[in-house]
Design brief:
Blueprint: H1 8-29, H2 39-71, H3 76-98, H4 109-138, E1 145-149, E2 156-160, E3 164-170, E4 173-180, E5 183-189, H5 193-199, E6 204-207, E7 210-212, E8 217-222, E9 225-228, E10 231-234, H6 237-244
Antiparallel strand pairs: 1-2, 3-4, 3-7, 4-5, 6-7, 8-9, 9-10
Helix pairs in contact: 1-2, 1-4, 2-3, 3-4
InterPro entries: LytTR_DNA-bd_dom
Pfam families: LytTR (PF04397)
Organism: Pontimicrobium sp. SW4
């Protein structure tokens, strides 16, 4: 499961939606009735539950941020841990609020868990899932960077994949053609075209001495030459069909 890590503002948005839903659920479903609980009392109860939902979710979002930055990845297991931590903290904090003088709840923790929290979990889980999924889609994906390495440890070029135009063989070196601030730049690395092709399989071979990034293909200049971004390259017969199939 590859997931972007939302910023704090995205998590605040999710927290607000969960908080609002928590208020509406508590106020309209009234999951418990202990003695005389009038309209004003349920307003207090609902505000308390919604506030706790918001605070707990923001805390959980900080946990997610920490784990994501530490591991630089996300998975179904880690996503599940978000829900577990959220419900664990939410259950404990709402039970404390439930037993306070505001509500004066009569359920023991085990009954509170089975009679109230189970229903809340069943209703909240789909909401949290879809809200998080929707907000994740709002986050622009980071453009993938690639790192080209030569035999020398200092021979490194890190660029955006979209900025790489082509790579040409140059004796014992490869010459990298790439864009930097929309200007054509080159860099020599001590490596082989074969190794580069194995490492970066999105590249297409058009000649025994040239690999291209197909996203920079512009047009055919003639039957043996292609135009790329700010550069032209020859195409050999052996690789022509491969290029035509793009």
């Amino acid at each position: 499961m590859k997931t972007s890590n939302p910023s704090l503002k995205h998590h605040i948005l999710i927290g607000i939606v969960i908080s609002l839903w928590s208020f509406l659920f508590a106020f309209f479903s009234r999951p418990f009735e202990h003695g005389y609980m009038d309209f004003q009392k349920w307003i207090y109860v609902s505000i308390g539950y919604s506030f706790i939902a918001f605070i707990v979710y923001i805390f959980v979002s900080l946990y997610q941020k920490y784990v994501y930055e530490k591991l630089d990845k996300w998975s179904i297991l880690l996503e599940s841990s978000v829900y577990i931590l959220f419900y664990l903290l939410y259950t404990i904090m709402t039970y404390i609020y439930y037993k306070s003088s505001v509500i004066e709840g009569i359920y023991e923790f085990s009954q509170y868990l089975t009679d109230i929290m189970v229903n809340i979990i069943l209703i909240f889980t789909p909401l949290i899932f879809f809200v998080r999924r929707y907000v994740f889609k709002l986050i622009p994906s980071k453009e993938e960077c690639i790192t080209l390495k030569g035999e020398n440890k200092l021979d490194i070029l890190k660029i955006k994949q979209s900025d790489l135009i082509c790579i040409s063989n140059s004796q014992n070196y490869v010459e990298i053609f790439f864009l930097e601030n929309n200007e054509l730049k080159t860099k020599l690395l001590r490596s082989s075209l074969k190794k580069i092709q194995i490492d970066f399989q999105f590249l297409v071979q058009v000649h025994r001495s040239h690999l291209i990034n197909p996203s920079h293909f512009k047009s055919w200049k003639d039957s043996t030459t292609i135009s790329l971004t700010q550069i032209e390259l020859p195409v050999s017969k052996n690789y022509k069909n491969q290029l035509l199939s793009l």
